[in-house]
Design brief:
- It is a single chain.
- With 192 residues, this protein is mainly α.
- It folds into three domains: 37 residues, no CATH class; 43 residues; 91 residues, Arc Repressor Mutant, subunit A (Orthogonal Bundle).
- Helices cover 53% and strands 8% of the residues.
- It contains nine helices and five strands, in the order ββααααααααββαβ.
- The protein has a three-stranded antiparallel β-sheet with strand order 3-4-5. It has a two-stranded antiparallel sheet with strand order 1-2.
- Helix 3 packs across helix 4 and helix 6 crosses helix 7.
- The termini are far apart.
């Protein structure tokens, strides 16, 4: 057995062209370095771009209904546990956290651009009732839906989730919120 490309890996003696194997190893190392530099998630535990887009479309089409991880997983032909791990590896957020964030963004848009009642907005966002909307909205924005609707100063660009010390941060210029959502654990509660 010979050392291949200084990697410590052994190549069989009957390999027809050891230089071809060295080139393959060098290409693999180069591709990994580029992926690391660009922070591209890789590996079997990440969702492909088409899977992320399909999940996003599924959520958009069913936003007024209850959506479960099983349904999202079946949309991309994965088991629920593998989907949940892959989704978090690809986006940095759990499917549930992303779904709640999506619903709160929808609620913000409906509050800002319509005169619908809070109960109707809650139903359109797939929430149980107006009280459910109020609890989640206060948790994620720091103000109640009514205050947020009538007070432009209450409309902050970042949404916070003080429960469990999680803060959802995102790039507002990003075209794909699934690809940019990330959760960061904080040691202390986030002040609104």
């Amino acid at each position: 057995m010979n050392d291949v490309a200084g990697t410590g890996a052994a190549a069989p003696l009957d390999w027809p062209h050891p230089s071809a194997l060295q080139a393959l190893v060098a290409d693999a190392l180069l591709m990994r370095a580029v992926a690391d530099a660009l922070q591209i998630p890789q590996g079997p535990s990440c969702l492909a771009i088409w899977q992320i887009r399909r999940v996003g479309r599924y959520i958009d089409e069913h936003q007024s209904q209850a959506i479960h991880v099983v349904e999202l997983a079946s949309a991309v032909d994965l088991s629920p546990s593998h989907f949940a791990r892959s989704f978090r590896a690809a986006t940095g957020a759990t499917p549930h956290a992303y779904l709640i964030e999506h619903r709160m963004r929808l609620a913000c848009a409906l509050l800002a651009h319509s005169d619908r009642t809070l109960a109707l907005i809650a139903v359109e966002c797939g929430l149980a009732d107006q009280a459910h909307l109020g609890r989640l909205f206060k948790r994620y924005t720091g103000s109640t839906p009514s205050v947020w609707r009538h007070d432009p100063l209450a409309r902050r660009p970042a949404m916070v989730a003080p429960r469990d010390g999680l803060r959802i941060e995102r790039s507002h210029a990003a075209a794909n919120p699934l690809a940019t959502a990330s959760l960061r654990r904080r040691s202390q509660p986030v002040s609104p």
